[in-house]
Amino acid sequence: MNTKRRVFLTVFLISIFLCLTVKAASPQNAVATIYKIAGKVEIKQSGSEKWEKAKVEMPLTAGMALRTGKNAEAFIKWSTGSVVKFSAQTSMNFSELSLDKTSKIEKTTIDISEGRLFANVKKMLNKNSEFNVKTPTAIAGVRGTGFLAETSEGKTTFAVVEGQVSVTAEGVEVLLNENLQTLVESGMPPAEPAEMPEDLRQELNKDAKETSDISKEPTVEGAKETAAPKEVEERTEVINQTIEDIINQDTQGKIIEEYGIPAEPGCCDR
Length: 270
What we know:
This protein folds into two domains: 1-26 and 229-270; 32-223, Jelly Rolls, CATH 2.60.120.1440. The protein is 28% helix and 36% strand. It contains four helices and 17 strands. The protein has helices at 3-25, 198-216, 220-223, 230-259, and strands spanning 32-38, 41-44, 51-53, 59-60, 65-68, 73-78, 83-86, 91-99, 106-121, 130-134, 139-142, 145-152, 155-162, 165-169, 172-176, 180-185, 194-195. The longest helix is centred in the C-terminal third of the chain and has 30 residues, at 230-259. The radius of gyration is 26 Å and the shape is elongated.
């Protein structure tokens, strides 16, 4: 294989690799990303046993787990504008996380084993879309609303500040409208909806405003449309240097082959 063909093939293959890498890792292609964190927040990749430090703009995929430490919190933002706030000492995973850009069908299921979240879910564009929150005692189905889910020691509280949430446990479903809450204990159906206390309402109104403000801010896709993750940029620099070295080596080899003399140092530097 001559020099030109070898260099061309090398550049071509590396270019394909880079395109696939950027597409897979870039936040603008993700259904949801980490928007803001405070304190100790960790992520575990699907199929891994290792927890790693969470970072802002980190893209999330189905099967990933997240946990927050003491006095920590994390905000996850969906490409559709929905925002979920995870409070301190919360453990959860995304058992389902997908969005078909053609049909606009969104599928999200958050399994929260311990802790608290506030979800500000935007109205879904397709009737077949689902946004569910599962706890050890119940499941809540959402279609455009702001609500709380807090679970601990076999008990879960659901409370709604806006919209409507369907809560199901032990084959029984209750509908929560604005300013209502229900308690679900392990092995029991949801309690009859009741008006939430004033102090909880005020607290959730603050969460609603905070998540709503984040929802209105530019997404990662809009703010950094052409930005690639740092690791991809670093990899690109290494690949560029490798290509340059290949060209230099091939050029020097050609000089030796054609003229029978060694190339002088630096003769082929760009």
